[in-house]
Amino acid sequence: MLRENDVSTNGSGADATAADVDFDVVVVGAGFAGMYLLHRLRGLGLSARVIEAGADVGGTWYWNRYPGARCDIQSVDYSYSFDAELDETWQWTEKYAPQPEILRYAQHVADKHDLRRDIQFSTRVESAVWDDNDSRWQLRTSDGNTITSRFYVMATGCLSMPKEVDIAGTDRFTGAVYFTSRWPHEGVDLTGKRVGVIGTGSSAIQSIPVMAAQAAQLTVFQRTPNFSMPANNGPIPQDKLDALAKGRPQYREAARWSGAGVTVDISTTSALAVSDEERLAKYEDVWEHGGIIQVINSYMDHLVNPAANELLCEFVRNKIRATVKDPETAEALCPKTFPIGTKRLCVDTGYYETFNRENVRLVDLRVHPISTITESGIDLVDESLEFDVIVFATGFDAMTGAIVGVDIAGRDGLTLKDAWSEGPKTYLGLMAARFPNLFMITGPGSPSVLSNMMVSIEQHVDWIADCIDNLRSAGLSTIEPTQTAVDGWVQHVNDYADITLMPQANSWYMGANVPGKPRVFLPYAGGVDRYRAICNEIVADDYLGFERRGPSTQRVNDGIVCRVQPDVQLMLEAMAAMNLPTMDSMSASEARDFSNAIAAQRAPGPDVGEIVDGVLPGAGGDLNYRLYRPASPGPHPIVAYFHGGGWVLGSFDSDDPLCRDLCVRSDAIFVSVDYRHAPEVRFPAAADDAFAATQWIADNAAALGGIPGELAVAGWSAGGNLAAIVAQLARDSGGPRLVGQLLLTPVTDSDFSRASYTENADGYVLTTALMRWFWDHYADPDDRISPKAAPIRAESLADLPPAMIVTCEFDPLRDEGDAYAEALAAAGVPVRHLPCHGQIHTSIPAVDMLLSGAPIRAEMAAAIRGFFKARVPA
Ligand code: NA7
Q1: Are the C-beta atoms of residues 783 and 683 closer than 8 Å to each other?
Q2: Ligand 1 in contact with 198 (CB < 6 A)?
């Protein structure tokens, strides 16, 4: 359906007729990625051929020439850094250069480095098949030739495959049709024309003001309004010039090690932590003087906290309302269905002002959907509109479209399309398992579109060129990632996306704009700096996660590079930087002071309906408790809760955020009990207190606002140990009747020989040494084998209440938690076991601090509801 208006420019490229030739490397695409790669490969003395569908270099800037097209990253940043001379001598005329100037820049680079002689223009690669016998790729091109190469690189760009039009009747229209992504090279004169534009993404937002100035009438068909900020275009800003004057190489190096590939101030303050005046002043400043990266980073939590995000959303909406005179149009232009930044923030010149023009009309497709395109225009469900021209600004099959657009078959004929049928599966966005020697530049799973593309392109090109060079020096001929490495990376990419608001938008980042495309977050949200460090670490670790082969060698370095949850990793790094003392080197009272001081810095947790502190009778005297009541009308079921802290530390204060969180999520009363601590009072005092408290809660359920008989137990760590023991004591003592037990990373045994004690001995907050310290304070060796200390050692586990057991991958207690879940199940107890990948012992209770724990707490709360749902009368 696309009508390409491709004309030949100055592309006097490689001999397009050369048949059956062989190269070290074939590269698809002569955009910025393919051009720099060619330069690097030549520098290594490798033979290389670039195949390019367009008639000249430039990639996206060759094709996307719609009126008003510009980059949305400042041009001094959106440019190559590899050639210092080029960097010093090329002068950008504006802050955001227009497309013709960026294309001229690409052509200048091609001239300067004489690139075109190795680029075959106006040619497509139609299929690529891996030949296992020869260890080479066999490529068929649109000119009917076959080319072979040792390495094959897709430098096809993230936004290069236009999305198929999915509107009924598109072929019927007899007027002129244009796509922003394939705008005619000779330009289009819209003077006096009635123009309809479909789409309000970045391309539309840039082109609409220019088209409106020319057309007789312009109608904008908007399905989803987007957030856009003014380019404030003009000369290169003084702060950029000052930064560059201080030293261009340093400036470039800082960008390479920044989060988005552009050096900006990154706030460490929450948008919710400042006054309205301060926040507004900051927003105005970045709006006026910054760009999209500065706006999103003006506070640290815009992309992770919905409340913080909403503050910025409303600021932008107010800008729209202040600009667009017609209130109804203004409101229709205000995005309200996704958090700001979860679709790429647009940059415009006069977009919103355009809607104040007499000749411009906005059609809100959410209110007036298109029923069909007709011979003469567009029919809405309630109106027929006539046009001379329809412009589709409907976007791209982003990040994967161009890659799977070529028929690529790897080992055993596996096609990339099939391998990616549930979403792209890559290692680092660079390679895929079973596709040896196939590289992607800025592929899915790399920072790519979430970064300054030029920085990401250069990093990928350098990594690939160095890798090929490395293989050559080692006498190896193939490289491919292992399946384990790919699965681990896909998980890590998802883990990062999941701690942001990004997956909440129906964006092309999620593949949501293309009907039928799997919904998977495509780019890597961990940042350019972190990603670069990971890529370097993999090389330093002898290509961790890769299998390399040579004529007589096979080197498999299987493994996963990032296994800990990203937010947990950030916390561990911050803690390591603080060089904190270890608690097992302290006395019990010093350790209590230390852990209280740390607890004082955490987030408070959500509000609950009511909190009541009280006293209840324990086994050896009164115990403090804290009751959390949900805001909903009672009575509620009750959970007797026991805090963590190795029987030595903690109180109802230490687990306060977790109890609030679980109370809100489960709509149950939580009674958090302060049992007696060791070493002052040793085993079995804590267990006896926990049981006595549970009996008292059961007896006083109605007075506490609970439903008599609807009682469960829960606990974290040593508290999980107590909850499990209470469940056994209640069974053996004939009551109270418990409907469930929730055990979060519980201590179930006193046996240090399980693998998790060795694997996670150090580095994940709860260490093996600290566990020994806790046991030494709590119980004598003879007592530790009692089921009242080690519940897994009970004679029978039958007839215990249904359980949910949560275990964490990087926790010394992992294996004994797993073992308890297995043992309960074997005894016929209904068990839901939730092993949490990438989590550590202390991460799930870190409410509002570690976002990756939230879904786990949601599951815990669902289990609590489940305990009661089975029993609460309707
Ligand atoms: P985008 O950002 O994907 O925008 C495409 C627009 O087209 C968007 O507003 C879509 O609405 C709209 N669209 C797509 N299909 C339809 C149909 N069938 N009916 C109505 N509207 C439709 O692509 P761009 O080219 O503007 O920008 C791509 C990137 O290039 C940009 O992010 C920058 O990084 C540079 P929807 O939002 O899907 O409701």
Answers
A1: yes
A2: yes
Q: Cα dist. 661→129, 664, 844, 854 in Å?
A: 54, 5, 11, 9
Distance between Cα 398 and ligand 1 center (Å)? 11
Cα 206 to ligand 1 centroid, rounded to whole Å: 12
* DSSP single-letter state for residue 227: -
Distance of CA 354 to the CA centre of its chain: 35
Lowest mean pLDDT among 82-91, 264-273, 362-371, 860-869: 264-273
Whether the per-residue pLDDT at 650 is higher than 70: the answer is yes
Residue 394 CA to ligand 1 centre (angstroms): 4
DSSP result, 464-532:
HHHHHHHHHHTT--EEEE-HHHHHHHHHHHHHHHHTSSGGGS--GGGTTTSTT------S-TT-HHHHH
Q: Is the CB of 523 under 6 A from ligand 1?
A: no
Structural tokens at position 637: 């079921």
Single out the residue of 535, 408, 426 nearest to residue 126, CA to CA.
408
The ligand 1 atom at the shortest distance from the C-alpha of residue 165 is: 18
Angle at 177 between CA 176 and CA 179, to 5 degrees: 145
Strand blocks (E) in 576-724 = 610-617, 622-629, 636-642, 669-673, 706-716
pLDDT value of position 265: 86
Alpha helices in 779-850 (DSSP H): 814-826
Crossing angle between the packed helical segments 453-473 and 528-540, to the nearest 10 degrees: 0
Question: Mean pLDDT in the chain?
Answer: 95
**Smallest CA separation from ligand 1 atom 12, residue:** 199
Between CA 846 and CA 745 the distance in angstroms is: 14
- Tell me the two tokens of residue 211: 């088209």
Residue 385, C-beta contacts closer than 8 angstroms, at least 6 positions apart: 196, 219, 363, 377, 378, 379
Cβ–ligand 1 contact at 365 (below 6 Å): yes
Model confidence, pTM = 0.94
Ligand 1: residue of 513, 514, 519 to mutate (most ligand atoms within 8 A of CB) is: 513
Residue 2 confidence (pLDDT): 35
Using DSSP bridges, classify how beta strands 125-131 and 119-120 pair: parallel, antiparallel or unpaired. unpaired
Percent of the chain with pLDDT over 90: 95
What's 427's DSSP letter?
A: B
Which ligand 1 atom sits nearest the alpha carbon of residue 223?
Answer: 39
Which residue type, as a one-letter code, is found at position 107? Q
How far apart CA 89 and CA 99 sit, in angstroms, is: 19
Query: How is residue 429 written in tokens?
Result: 């966005």
Contact in structure between 645 and 595 (CB atoms under 8 Å)? yes
**Which tens digit of pLDDT belongs to each residue from 767-821?**
999 999 999 999 999 999 999 999 999 999 999 999 999 999 999 999 999 999 9
Q: 874 pLDDT exceeds 50?
A: no
- Point out the ligand 1 atom lying closest to the alpha carbon of residue 343: 32
Q: What are 292-332's pLDDT values in tens digits?
A: 999 999 999 999 999 999 999 999 999 999 999 999 999 99
Q: Which amino acid is at 573?
A: E
C-alpha to C-alpha distance for 755 and 774, rounded to whole angstroms: 19
- Ligand 1 contact via 204 beta carbon (within 6 Å): yes
Cβ of 513 less than 6 Å from ligand 1: yes
Atom of ligand 1 nearest to the CA of 512: 38
Ligand 1 atom closest to residue 393's alpha carbon, by position in its atom list? 7
Contact 805, 822 (CB under 8 A): no
pLDDT score of 853 more than 50: yes
